[in-house]
Design brief:
3 domains; alpha/beta; Cobalt-precorrin-4 Transmethylase, domain 1; five-stranded parallel β-sheet; Rossmann fold
C-alpha cells in the first residue's frame, strides 16, 4: 500500500539558541572540572530530554539551595535567579557558576539601572515563570510590578506615574508584548523603555519563522516542553497567524498520526530549548507513515555565541 504524500516544511531558525547552548556547555564543563555530582538549581533549560540526558551524566537538579549540601559547586539555570540566591550560596561557601542567559542578565541590569534612577519598574511577563521570578527578585517588592496582559496595563495603579519604566521577559510573544507596551505608552507617555528590546533575537526569529510556516501550511507542530515559555508562544503565534491546527508536543511519540488526517502540508519547528535531535526524530516518524517531501523555510541566520564564565573558560 502506497503512502500518502505529505509536505513537511521545517522552520529555520529553530531549536537551541546561544543562551541554551551556553547553559548546557556550562553544565558539561562543570562535570569535567568538578566531577559528579554537580548540582543545578532548577532545570538548566526547559526540556525533559536535555535534563534527562544530563541526569545520566551525574547532574542533580534541585528547586532550592536548601537541597544542596554545603561547600559544593552549584549552577544557576539559564532563566536567572533572584539576587538572594547567590547571596545565600556565598554564605554557605558554595562555588557558584552562573548559567543565566546574558540576554536575561541584560534585563536584570536594566531593571536595576531604572531603579537607581528612582523609577518604578514594570515587568511584562508571565507570573510564576522562573525568568520572571528571577527578575522580580532583583529589586524590592514595592519597586517592581508585574504586568501580564493589556487589561492590566490599562488599569494598573502607579504611585508616581511620571517616574516609570518597563522591562520584559525575553521569551514573550512579540505581537502581544507590543500591544501591552502600546497601552502603557498611551497611559504613561513619559515611560522609559529599555535601550534595546528585551525579547531576545532567538524568540523573535523563531516566531517569524513559525508565522511563515502558518501562512503556507495546513498544520503546525512545535516541539518543546509544556513548561517552556518560548515553545508555548510558538504554538500560540501559529494559531494567531491563521493556522488553527497547531500543536505543541515534547517528542515524536506524542503525535497521533490521525491528527494529520486531511493535512497536505505541515510546518515543523522547535522551541529554543529543544535539541535538533527531537526534530529529526519527528521527521523520521513522519517518513514511516507518509511519503514525505521535505523543505526548509529560512527566515534568518543566527551566528550568536556567548562566552563561558571565567571559572570554566580556561
Amino acid at each position: 500500500m502506497s503512502k500518502r504524500k505529505l509536505e513537511v516544511q521545517l522552520g529555520a531558525p529553530r531549536g537551541f539558541c546561544a543562551g541554551v547552548d551556553r547553559a548546557i556547555e556550562i553544565v558539561e564543563r562543570s562535570l569535567e572540572k568538578f566531577g559528579a555530582p554537580v548540582y543545578v538549581r532548577h532545570e538548566i533549560v526547559h526540556n525533559k530530554y536535555v535534563v534527562d540526558q544530563l541526569r545520566k551524566k551525574g547532574v542533580i537538579f534541585v528547586e532550592e539551595l536548601e537541597e544542596v549540601p554545603d561547600n559544593v559547586p552549584v549552577i544557576f539555570s539559564a532563566h536567572g535567579v533572584p539576587k538572594s540566591v547567590p547571596i545565600d550560596a556565598q554564605r554557605r561557601n558554595m562555588t557558584q557558576i552562573d548559567a543565566t542567559c546574558p540576554l536575561v542578565t541584560k534585563v536584570h541590569v536594566d531593571a536595576k539601572r531604572h531603579n537607581e534612577a528612582g523609577r518604578t519598574v514594570l515587568l511584562i511577563g508571565h507570573e510564576g515563570h522562573p525568568e520572571v521570578i528571577g527578575t522580580l527578585g532583583q529589586l524590592r517588592e514595592e519597586e517592581i510590578l508585574l504586568i501580564e496582559n493589556k487589561k492590566q496595563a490599562e488599569t494598573i495603579r502607579i504611585n508616581n506615574p511620571e517616574n516609570l519604566s518597563y522591562v520584559t521577559q525575553t521569551t514573550l510573544s512579540v505581537d502581544d508584548t507590543q500591544e501591552i507596551i502600546t497601552a502603557l505608552k498611551k497611559r504613561f507617555p513619559n515611560i522609559k523603555s529599555p535601550p534595546r528590546e528585551d525579547i531576545c533575537y532567538a524568540t523573535t526569529n523563531r516566531q517569524a519563522a513559525v508565522k511563515a510556516l502558518a501562512s503556507n501550511c495546513d498544520a503546525v507542530i512545535v516541539i518543546g516542553a509544556p513548561n517552556s515559555s518560548n515553545s508555548n508562544r510558538l504554538a500560540e503565534v501559529a494559531k494567531t497567524a491563521g493556522c488553527e491546527k497547531s500543536i505543541l508536543i515534547g517528542r515524536a511519540d506524542e503525535l497521533d498520526m490521525g491528527w494529520l488526517e486531511n493535512v497536505n502540508s505541515v510546518g515543523v519547528t522547535a522551541g529554543a530549548s529543544a535539541p535538533e535531535f527531537l526534530v529529526q526524530e519527528l521527521v523520521s516518524k513522519l517518513k514511516e507513515n507518509f511519503n514525505v517531501e521535505l523543505k526548509e523555510v529560512f527566515i534568518a541566520t543566527e551566528n550568536v555565541r556567548f562566552s563561558l564564565p571565567s571559572a570554566l573558560s580556561a
